[in-house]
Amino acid sequence: MEIPELVFQFFKLCKLTPIEIRKGIYQVHIDDQLAKELDGWRAKGGLLQFTFDKKLAETYGAELLSQGSYRLDSIVRLIRKQAILSCGYLPHDVFYEPEIQNKIMEKLRIQHPFTRWYILDHQLRYGPYLWFTVRFTYLTYEKREEIRKFLVDLVSGRVLNYEIPADLLKPGTCDSNLCYQRRLSYKQAYQRLQQLVIEELKYTDASWAIQANAKLEQERVQLEQFFRDSPNPEQLQRRLEELMNRAKPRVQIRPLRAALLYMPKLEYRVMRVDTEEKINRITYDPVSSQYEIS
Fold first, then answer.
1. In the predicted model, is pLDDT for residue 228 greater than 80?
2. Which residues are bridge partners to 285 per DSSP?
3. Domain ranges of the chain
């Protein structure tokens, strides 16, 4: 793809239409959010003038979009980091099945000490998950970032905070006859993730935000004292807004990419013996080490 085509397709995806204000010189208005994506979290939106011609860039002061230029690199970086939906699976032989049987029997004996259990047979199944890579950015006077990964079970809706070594995953999908039918849409899975993240943030250490607010209050008082006798009250208001935009503690949460993964599950047919004999089905999830009896 040629550079102009790439750039115009990018702005089209951003729902923006550059206007040619002079032959070979284009202008587009970008908002604060896109500016921050391109130039960092302190950047502000405004008019972006650009050209693909070096002479025009030098003559009119427009940003040059060419191979190796800062602006083109920033656009390419943004394109690369946008959410990418891919598909893969975790092979079942990553887990040692006899050991799983032992784990299940041990848990059953602990939870039902007066019941005897016998595994009759088992079969391999695969469950669909949506795997999210999420960036948490803690913004105040300083910026701190962390990357976390979450698995959302598209059958049960359970959200797991689980790190899967990428080298264990295989591209593509598994045998469709072995796959459970998903019950959640991708939108519902994302909503489950949002709920979990919001709940987690309620109980995380907020000392960084408390300290930042205390410092912010000190600066606010200093500004008010400095502009106390100013004949232009709008100047104080503008400086206070700038202070809040720059230093107000907040958390930005941005999904970087997502993948549809199929994870192995094992279905066991077991005989339960206590006052009577009964056949049960146990579905074991080796990723979360949890099981369900039906």
1. no
2. 290
3. 3-81, 87-293
